[in-house]
Amino acid sequence: MSIELTLIGKPGCHLCDTARETIEAVLFEFIAANPEASVVIQEQNILDDEALQLKYAEEIPVLLIDGKMHNYWRIDEERLMRALYAKLKTQGA
Q1: CATH topology assigned to domain 3-92
Q2: Which residue, of 30, 33, 63, 72, has the fewest CB within 10 Å?
Q3: What does the pLDDT read at residue 59?
Q4: Half-sphere exposure of 16 toward its Cβ, with a 13 Å CA cutoff?
Q5: Whole-number Å distance between alpha carbons of 40 and 56
Q6: What's the rounded Cα separation, in Å, for the pair 32 and 14?
Q7: Hey, where are the domains in the chain?
Q8: How confident is the model at residue 91 (pLDDT cuts 50, 70, 90)?
Q9: Backbone phi, then psi, for 29, in 5-degree steps?
């Protein structure tokens, strides 16, 4: 099984750029420690999807883990790492 991360944002959003950098840094460390883990990352642009724009316009960037809201505005590295380990643990059970 894999963990799916979805970053919802839009071009020109400095918080989205920062969130992307944070996610990449956390994943680098997480995958290094857990090479068996499979993490898929996708990005969605709220400007391309009216439903996303209506739902998240005031909250971007938004990070979903396996389709569920994890965080918005600022991504906390430690919280994301804990969530990834929790997912890994539940998938291994």
Answers
A1: Glutaredoxin (3.40.30)
A2: 33
A3: 95
A4: 19
A5: 21
A6: 27
A7: 3-92
A8: confident
A9: -70, -45
